Amino acid sequence: MLGKLLGYASALLAWIGGVALVLMMLHIAADVVARYVFNAPLHGTVEIVSAYYMVAVVFLPLAMIERANGHIVVELATQHFPRRIQDALIGVVALLSAAYFGAFAWQTGGDAIKKYEIGEQALGTVAVTVWPTRFFLPIGCGMIALVLVYKAVRLFRGDRKVLQPHVAREAIE
Questions:
Q1: Distance of alpha carbon 93 from its chain centroid, rounded?
Q2: 24 pLDDT band (50/70/90 cuts)?
Q3: What dihedral do alpha carbons 30, 36, 42, 44 form, nearest 10°?
Q4: Domains contained in the chain, number
Q5: pLDDT of residue 166
Q6: Coil, helix or strand at residue 53
Q7: What is the dihedral of CA 79, 148, 60, 72, to 10 degrees?
Q8: In which domain, by residue range, is 123 found?
Q9: Which residues pair with 123 in a beta bridge?
Q10: pTM, to two decimals
């Protein structure tokens, strides 16, 4: 049940990141057309792209990428270890990574609350309210931390299913 919940939540965040990617593409294309065809660029494009779209695209899909085992892996020495030792090492690294992402989520969550309280804005050609995007970091990092802990627990219990690349297409059981 917990695995399915994590699967659906990480899929939702990845979907939101994908929508942000499409919106970014459309926004930039509209700005280019407006700039070169109508000689009237869309004001705030740089601020909105860098503060909203890029942050969503980078941080929200992290948990889904972890579920799909899509992060970079270097196995120069460990590929020759017995399977149980490999699983134990992956589990330990998952827990260490979860601790890092959890601490990062905690810190960025506190920062997001502070930015919300002051109503942070980015000043460029126009003022753009950016405090809402500060919450993408703790949400994305918190979700990957939960997925990593779940993965480690499953590995320590001897379940290698979490290491299969197809897991991202199905809800984790």
A1: 18
A2: very high
A3: 100
A4: 1
A5: 54
A6: helix
A7: -10
A8: 2-169
A9: 127
A10: 0.86
